[in-house]
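Narrative of activities, Objective 1.

The group set out to show that a structural description can be obtained from nothing but a protein's sequence at a throughput compatible with the screening campaign. Below is one input-output pair from the validation batch, recorded exactly as produced.
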Amino acid sequence: MPVKIRLQRHGSKKRPFYFIVVADVRAPRDGKFIQKIGTYNPLTVPASVQLDRQKALDWLHKGAQPTDTVRRILSYKGVLYLKHLLRGVTLGLFDEAAAMEKFSKWHSEHELQVKKRQEDNRRARPGGRRGPAPARRVERKQENETSG
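Output recorded for this entry:
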């Protein structure tokens, strides 16, 4: 049974919200799934992702193939890098402690970059929820000229 890690759409029209699920490739997009491993909200800046890293890693080791978007999400969260490091451990290139040290170093640097991006976005955003108030047009009163 071929298995994919993919997005399952929820939310209303023009307000998407996704579950990251493991599903059989023959199942419909929003249909039956095997396991839910996280959520993805593209409307926030940067997009918010909640992911169970261990479940995702287990499914990748079992042979589940992520879709393109989920592959980017897994890369963003460091799951693919962790899989790469664990592959190096099985090949005997380094031990597991060194792999976890490399991953924790990468993770801390990545978190700093994300926080910096959030702060830059907050500073660049205009005040208020709707942004600056639109300029009002001043209407001129027309005087009626009467001859008399």
